[in-house]
Input
Amino acid sequence: MDDLLSRTRAAVWHPCTQMKQLESAPPLAIARGEGPWLIDTDGRRYLDAISSWWVNLFGHCNPRISAAITEQLGRIEHVMLAGATHAPVVELSERLASLTGLGHAFYGSDGASATEIALKMSTHFWRNSGHPEKNGFISLKNAYHGETVGALSVTDIPLFKHTYAPLLRHSAQMPTPDVRLAEPGESAEAFALRCADALESHLAEHADTTAAFIVEPLVQGAAGMAIYHPVYLSRARELCTRYGVHLIADEIAVGFGRTGTMFACEQAAIRPDFICLSKGLTGGYLPLSAVLTTDHIYAAFYDDATARGFLHSHSYTGNPLACRAALAVLDIFEQDGVVAANRAKSERFTVVMEPLRDHPRVRHFRHLGMIWAFDVTRATPDFALRFSQSALTQGVLLRPIGNTVYCMPPYVVDGMEMDRTVAAMLHGLAASTDRGRGSMADGGSEKLP
Ligand SMILES: *Cc1c(COP(=O)(O)O)cnc(C)c1O
Output
């Protein structure tokens, strides 16, 4: 294991990481996975309470998903999707269309590429429709839509964005309906409507030069699990329609049951013009993303002129193994009634979380579907790192965002595993006060209560 750690530091540039920090906080050396558990090269087990960056839905090494991929491996692993097609991509596109009410699935390999695809399609639509001046984008304050140059232009997280500002195209950010920002006594709904008024003012002035409004429905994940009232989405839908601006729903994090419905947009009863999917799409198995859109938008590209077509591609577009994994995920949703089962689980787990809601350092305890989050007061600058290291000593993998602690477990976790998560969170809170500094040093020796 030590060998792997020194080799990873020498050979691998880890994502979203100041590599120097790996000196004091080495990465987990994972040998295998089993349901919601990760097992390191020394046999220690960690509960993956954040679903490996929000991608895993049905556990690691899920036999049904593994079998589907293995079966596909014996047929065809990959073929380019220009000038060829195959059953997995056709079936997946049909099923995603019936689930989303949108169609003509276009595939990429990860979330950021889905954002790029939606942004390009939207402006290309306006260009094909005789409005090349409609090429601006708007997003929400604190939005996250990925980190490639185009996606970063509509992302609004300073830590990720600021350094690359010279590369980025300007986009406008609308006030976020994040309910934590409501005035004292103001309801989530009233606040969301007030934010929608600001969106309307912007559209009234800039719709002529705006292609699309891109939004994370119901939960702004990377902002720190900022939850808002669905009425914002219904108003945004009305306004985008009225002002002739596309609505892009970035369901990369919230899609596939995470917020309690298959897609978060369902809770506002809206249909966006584009939907971006990734992360849970393959159950956390293989990189795949998809963008689906309306027949109306699709029709503007359908022409004898080549250049009116959407000439975008990635080498692995529509990879058959990834599509098979996604089909197995959809089968599990259907066969196991996952959305309904999660509803019951979500209620039970919220009860398990009660001790956190009542903890004196916890503010804004919030919950939606299979997401729980809270903010921690008196957090030191190194809070996130200390908290997550403390949780690891309790066998739970958690990575706070700033002073926000959240849990976003694979749907296969059980009550005991949630108990363990809560215990690790309480331990992390105790260990991350100044008094707790000493106890961090005993890492690994503490037992669960
Ligand atoms: C993770 C995420 C993305 C980017 O996906 P990657 O696969 O990391 O490129 C985009 N939008 C949202 C809302 C996300 O949570």
